[in-house]
Design a protein that fits this description.
This protein has about 525 residues and is of the alpha+beta class. The protein has three domains: about 250 residues, Rossmann fold (3-Layer(aba) Sandwich), CATH 3.40.50.11780; about 120 residues, no CATH class; about 80 residues, no CATH class. About 20% of the residues lie in helices and about 20% in strands. It is built from twelve helices and 21 strands. It has a nine-stranded mixed sheet with strand order 2-3-1-11-12-13-18-19-16, sandwiched between helices. The chain has a four-stranded antiparallel sheet with strand order 8-7-6-10, with no helix packed on it. It has a three-stranded antiparallel sheet with strand order 4-5-9. Helix 2 runs parallel beside helix 7. The chain starts with about 30 loop residues before the first strand and ends in a 22-residue tail after the last strand.
Length: about 525
């Protein structure tokens, strides 16, 4: 009712409906943690294409297993990835190795005093001799420190590891910048927009440093120019702590993507580390309601070795493993085949299947075709029959269809375990529902805990579940057969209310893949006379 009825007439009042639309979260955003030749360190970077990965992280690198996995991810249907760059500090022989360092250069005046410290936007040797910064004066005398100038930054191409003079991959121009910190176009502020460099201000003055170099600018010769040097790539991670960070600190970088979530985790470098890396990674996935795609070591190249390798892999329904590994053309080695783990490929196929059929459809079958890679080992029906009962998913090659995914079990899917989370789509559908409701029901906290609240919960959760039912996510021909939502005095007792608890019971009848198709054929004895 309006707060005050002061004059005769008609009053209009809007009444809240109680409808709060629940939107499903993503299902196939994939996180990758590994060594890369360039790119931000200490943060999770969202990328949406292979071209963006190439630009930010340098693309394929022979020392980075994940760079090949990311390439396969986008090729096979992936659309969103979160990339965490790490660098170890241990050589293969166990001794201390190179620590990642950022290429840099000081800009000095005539007296040799440092005015600006210019550095590459990320650590690594990628910027050494390849990133040039040059200034061209617009007006004023050479000694006029307040005169505006243009800055040009460019990255030169490399061929066989050597810089190609004059062949620029990227050129940036920042016009009318100033050495005055009070200027709205202060050089340090202007360079914050650069994809290549950053600057740190030390003192005001007139730069004179010149390493040579051609700006490529038609307005005039460079007043000063420098080339970055001193960058180091660091070592690829060779221990679980170097890959995941002490106490999973590198994995925890993914916490910062909130309110976005990741759904799949790929750690191709962990294939050589086994349970030491996969166990903490699995624990993190369980915490985050995510799914881990496990890679096997390159030495596991036949079905017998694969069954033995289960002892060094996690055993949980939040993870899946695929055999065999794959081979793909290596652009860093003249297109020769390179043996790679299947996790990135599978993450892409998961994403492709989710987009076309839904997370409840098994990412397997004749439409789950592997793109851009071949099987490292070809297995037979008999080999497949020896793997499937142990929860090992096979990658097969069939005439006409080519290389396809031929298994959809979790690592808890061994027949002997009789787990209710035997199948990948069942587990991932549950994770999708859990995360969607977790994100969408935060408004319930601190609301009055009584029937009006319970009715709103039933209305909104029921609408979400019914929408999934209409999309074909559940078994059953009617909503009653497919799912239920309960939130009333039976689920939430007076004692629960006194403790500040509201209990919501949500159930669903999951779709399970038709793993075995049995055709029964019988001869008719003859015509039956009627």
């Amino acid at each position: 009712m309006p707060s005050a009825l002061t004059f005769p007439g008609v009053y209009v009042e809007e009444i809240p409906s109680g409808v709060r639309t629940i939107t499903g979260v993503s299902t196939s955003s994939t996180a990758f943690v590994d060594y890369f030749a360039r790119g931000p360190m200490g943060e999770a970077v969202r990328i949406t294409s292979l071209a963006e990965f190439d630009r930010i992280f340098g693309g394929i690198d022979p020392l980075s297993e994940a760079s090949y996995a990311i390439s396969q991810y986008f090729l096979n249907g992936g659309s969103v990835a979160y990339v965490v760059r790490v660098a170890g500090a241990t050589k293969e022989d166990g001794t201390a190795g190179t620590v990642a360092a950022t290429a840099n250069k000081d800009i000095v005046d005539a007296a040799g005093d440092v005015l600006l410290k210019v550095s590459a936007v990320s650590a690594g040797a990628w910027a050494n001799e390849a990133v040039e910064i040059a200034a061209v004066r617009i007006t004023g005398a050479p000694t006029d420190e307040d005169a505006p100038f243009n800055i040009f930054v460019r990255e030169l191409a490399r061929e066989n590891g050597a810089v190609v003079p004059g062949e620029a991959l990227l050129v940036e121009a920042f016009r009318g910048v100033s050495m005055d910190p009070k200027s709205p176009n202060f050089v340090v502020t202007a360079l914050e927009q650069s994809e290549l460099v950053r600057a740190e201000f030390t003192a005001k003055g007139t730069p004179t440093t010149s390493d040579g170099g051609d700006t490529g600018d038609p307005q005039g010769p460079a007043a000063w120019s420098v080339v970055l040097a001193g960058g180091e790539n660091g070592e690829p991670p060779r221990t679980a702590d170097e890959l995941l960070g002490p106490s999973r600190s590198e994995l925890r970088k993914l916490d910062a993507i909130a309110p976005e979530v990741f759904n799949l985790l790929c750690l191709p470098a962990a294939a050589a580390l086994g349970k030491a890396a996969y166990d903490p990674a699995l624990a993190y996935c369980i915490e985050k309601r995510a799914f881990l795609l496990v890679d096997i070591p390159e030495s596991v190249d036949d079905p017998a070795k694969m069954r033995t390798a289960l002892g060094i892999l996690p055993s949980d329904n939040h993870a899946a493993v695929y055999f065999p590994r794959l081979t793909m053309p290596d652009p860093a080695n003249g297109g020769r085949p390179r043996n790679v783990g299947a996790s990135g490929t599978m993450a892409g196929i998961y994403a492709r299947t989710d987009g076309t059929r839904g997370v409840w459809k098994a990412p397997a079958g004749t439409d789950a075709v592997i793109r851009g890679a071949d099987l490292a080992t070809v297995i037979t029906d008999g080999d497949n029959g020896g793997l499937n009962p142990f929860g090992i998913n096979a990658l097969r090659n069939f005439p006409i269809f080519g290389s396809i995914v031929w298994g959809a079990r979790t690592l808890d899917g061994a027949d002997a375990k009789a787990s209710e989370w035997k199948y990948v789509p069942v587990r991932r559908t549950a994770l999708f529902i859990e995360e969607s409701l977790f994100q969408a029901l935060k408004w319930v906290v601190f609301e009055p805990n009584d029937e009006p609240l319970w009715a709103q919960i039933r209305l909104n959760v029921g609408a979400f579940m019914n929408d999934l039912f209409r999309q074909g996510a559940f078994q059953g021909s009617t909503p009653r057969e497919a799912y239920f939502v309960k939130c009333d005095k039976d689920t939430t007792t007076q004692n629960d209310i006194n403790k500040g608890i509201v209990n919501i019971a949500v159930g669903f009848a999951p779709l399970k893949p038709a793993e075995f198709v049995v055709i029964k054929l019988q001869q008719m004895a003859g015509q039956v006379q009627v």
